[in-house]
Amino acid sequence: MSTLGYLERLPELALAFADEANRSAHHDRGVVGAQFVPHLTAGAELDVADCLVITEAATLTALAPAGVDRLLRSLERHGAAGLALALRGDPAGDVPPVVRQTALRLSIPLMTTRARAEVWTCVDRGLSRTWQRQATQHMERIAQYVGHLPDGFHRPDAPEHLVTGLSKSLAAYVLFVDSTVGEVRAEYPLDAPDVHRYTAHDIVLSKETSRSPQFRNALHVVKLTVGRSADALFLVMVSATPFEGETLALAEHTAKLLVLAQDVAQVRRLTDSARGVRLGVFQMLIGGQIVLAQRAMEGLSPGLLQVEHVRVYVIATPSRSRDELVGALEPVTDGRALLVRCPARNDHIIAVEPLRRTGHAAGGTPRAGRPHALVDVLTDAIAGRPGCAIGGSRPYGLADVADAYSEAANALVSAHHNAERVGMFDGSSQLAPLLGEAAHSWAEHVLAPVLGLPYVVRDELIGTMRIALDFPYTETARILGAHRNTVAARAARVAEVLGGEGRPLDLKDVRVRTVLHLALSLFRTWNPRGGGVPDEPSLPSILRSAPARTWAEDLLHPLRGAAPSLAPTVRTWVRCNLHIDDTAEAVGVGAATVRKRLRQAEALLQRDLSTGLAGAHALTLALATTTGDPSLPTLGQDRLCTRDPAGPQDCAPVPYAGDGDPA
Questions:
Q1: Higher pLDDT, 325 or 259
Q2: Are the C-beta atoms of 513 and 426 separated by less than 8 Å?
Q3: According to the model, what pLDDT value does residue 482 have?
């Protein structure tokens, strides 16, 4: 913006301040226009905001002191940038003393000029164009600055965005520094000249507290305090060109936003710590460390896990929006559920709901219309969010959160295929609950070598295998909060103990895994009995029972009405140990076609055949029960063992990739 001091330097205007005191006080006063008003009156309505008003000196000479006072007060009220008297003779001698004294008292810039009226018309047009150009540049600078602001101050890189935006908008080197520890929080540009960096750090170390622009090392510098502390965080700007009023305003705004970003960062650190504790609590529950989980949760949400039964929900959401959904769910689930980001899947959120009512503990799904059910809260939260779905388990004891989690993950399959995008596991499609005492005796006999281990070792191995049979070892390790090699070592120990005689079980074989999965499912409801159980039943006799055959036929029934190629492809996939390429070669189609058919079977069977392994175990059991193919080993009697007892490997068979291109 042009100033009165700038106009004074233009020789064609013959403009001068009335005295030196006036010049010192008002030379930097901004001006956007000039209006020549020959006969100025106090009562006139003038549009002279930030304009220099020029009038004939005779107009004020003829006025009494009271009239001069009213006239100058009128100019002050209308926001005039100053008053210039057009003189005919000597400039200094023709300024009426009363005008000089009144202008000094009201702090109004007073000047004299000998330029003609038409000159001021040209000056007014020039000042107007200059003001418009500067205003446009100012708006562009503001727009550029706003464009560099982060979308939300919850982002960890918010200070970097603010500093970068300010630097680019002002073409200056900007430094955000914590002087107490000498830490540079943000700076831009990173390739700034050394003299700029030296000057910025020099003024930070100085005791200078002025917020006004300074001149050091032939550079213009501004130092602003960020926050309340006067000796901690500073924002420093260094430039070869002077800083104007709008520049300082942008810097002040940036300093205030940095305060907000710092406060949000502190809240974020506390929030991240709380989320880390919640994840640790969930992993303790999965690992069966119930007492430790309850104690750890008391610090965050007292009494939340002081219950006997829980229900687990798994919320599927696109990976890119998981953090946003977690942020939306945390306030509505606070004190009502243990909410964590799934450690194994970037597109899953897990919620553990404590069940305090007897009806919940007994089982069943939440009643429709119940206003405070967690499933209703979760359903409302995903409404309008594409790609989201909810899978829920049946009620389980705190010691069985691992089973509840597997059920909830499997229930997501049906959730993706219904209008509400919510699927609750009701247990009707599980085989283990349908089998009688003979099946439990069989499971006891199969698992006897593991059950005979010391209590701590036994629970650790069984807890790991309950997850490792449903998920690949890498995901199992993340769920449990353990190293993958630890999971592999525990699985190898189970295979060795159950195999016996130096012939460990081949856990890479889906048939072995399926039988072991069934035994562990029965073990969950197993109650030790006094004395032995004679004449232990075999697995074939269990699968020939009426409940088992009915269950298997019901499970496979949807495939009978599907395309003729679907059922053979599914059977071949199981026979080929869940390997896509081997299945494609055996069926005589491409791998993409096999993936497409398995996705179709997944939707029909309402079983997860792509991400987890529990669906493959159920499918293998059903096929073995109805057709005898594949044949299942009876662990503990006719064990199927590995041909190469090498070191621990990722024994989980590889399910088909659900994102394959359809044929």
A1: 325
A2: no
A3: 86
How would DSSP label each residue in 143-187?
HHHHHTS-S-TTSTTHHHHHHHHHHHHHTSEEEEEETTTTEEEEE
Cα angle at 621 between 615 and 625, to 5 degrees? 145
Rounded CA-CA distance 250/371 in Å is 49
Residues 6+ apart with CB under 8 A from 647: 492
Half-sphere exposure of 106 (CA within 13 A, CB side): 24
Q: What are phi and psi of 502, to 5 degrees?
A: 70, 15
The answer to whether the CB of 352 falls within 8 A of the CB of 309 is no
Q: How many Cβ atoms from other residues are within 10 Å of residue 487's Cβ?
A: 26
Eight-class DSSP state of 634: B
* Cα–Cα distance measured from residue 70 to residue 155, given in angstroms and rounded to the nearest whole number: 57
Taking the CA of residue 69 as centre, how many other CA atoms within 13 Å lie in the half-sphere pointing to its CB?
A: 4
Buried b (16+ CB within 10 A) or exposed e, 234-243: bbbbbbeeeb
> Alpha-carbon distance 157 to 177, whole Å?
15
> Buried (b) or exposed (e) across 101-123, using 16+ Cβ within 10 A?
ebbeeeebbbbbbebeeebbeeb
Closest C-alpha among 144, 168, 164, 155 to residue 260: 155
- Residues with Cβ within 8 Å of 208's Cβ and at least 6 positions away in sequence, in order, are 214, 223
Q: Give 75's DSSP letter.
A: H
Phi, psi of 599 (to 5 degrees): -65, -40
Q: Find out whether 195 and 217 touch, Cβ atoms under 8 Å.
A: yes
Tens of pLDDT along 189-243? Answer: 999 999 999 898 888 888 776 777 888 888 999 888 887 655 578 889 999 888 8
Residue 425, helix vs strand vs coil: coil
How much is the average pLDDT of 63-80? 86
- Condensed to tens digits (0 to 9), the pLDDT of residues 256-266 reads 777 767 666 66
Measured at the CA of 332, the angle between CA 331 and CA 334, to 5 degrees, comes to: 65
602 φψ region: left (φ > 0), alpha (ψ -120 to 50), beta (else)? alpha
Q: How do 338-341 and 396-397 pair as beta strands?
A: unpaired
- Quickly tell me which residue has 């200059």 as its tokens: 130
Cβ proximity of 599 and 658 under 8 Å: yes
Q: Cα separation of 335 and 173, whole Å?
A: 47
The string of DSSP codes covering 104-155 is: HHHT--EEEE---HHHHHHHHHHHHHHHHHHHHHHHHHHHHHHHTS-S-TTS
Rounded Cα gap, residues 65 and 71, in angstroms: 10
pLDDT category of residue 480 using cuts at 50, 70 and 90: confident
DSSP 8-state symbol, 71: H
Spatial separation of the C-alpha atoms in residues 30 and 18, rounded to whole Å: 18
Local structure of residue 641 (DSSP, 8 states)? B
Note the pTM of the prediction, 2 decimals: 0.57
Cα(137)–Cα(146) distance, integer angstroms: 14
Pairing of strands 110-113, 173-178: unpaired
Tokens standing for residue 360: 């919940």
Give the span between the Cα atoms of 94 and 632, in whole angstroms.
118
How distant is the alpha carbon of residue 118 from its chain centre?
A: 64
Round to whole Å and give the CA distance between 526 and 524.
Answer: 6
CA neighbours within 13 Å on the CB side: how many for 76? 15
Q: Is the previous residue joined to 189 through a cis bond, with omega within 30 degrees of 0? A: yes
Nearest alpha-carbon partner for 238 in 293, 288, 189: 189
